[in-house]
Design brief:
mainly alpha; 4 helices
């Protein structure tokens, strides 16, 4: 079954299944997680949720590199916050 995700729906689905047996919904779980990690955060709350998924990955991370790319996006987001703070000051 194909799923069109929104960030909020992907987070809700991921949270519902990440501590449970995700095997019955494994393809959808992986798709939700990939969607989250591919998302460019627009707010600090979104960035925090992406960190939640990354932390759950543990030290091994993902084989597809999405975790590293997500960290790069988060770093850019945080740098943008710093720049916005400097401009506002």
């Amino acid at each position: 079954m194909s799923q069109t995700w929104t960030f909020e729906a992907a987070i809700a689905f991921w949270r519902q299944h990440h501590n449970a047996d995700a095997e019955p919904v494994w393809d959808r779980f992986v798709a939700a997680e990939a969607f989250i990690l591919d998302h460019k955060p627009r707010t600090a709350a979104e960035a925090d949720l992406i960190f939640e998924v990354l932390i759950d990955q543990g030290p091994d991370g993902r084989g597809d590199g999405r975790d590293r790319t997500a960290l790069q996006r988060l770093r850019a987001f945080v740098r943008g916050l710093r720049t916005a703070d400097a401009v506002a000051a």
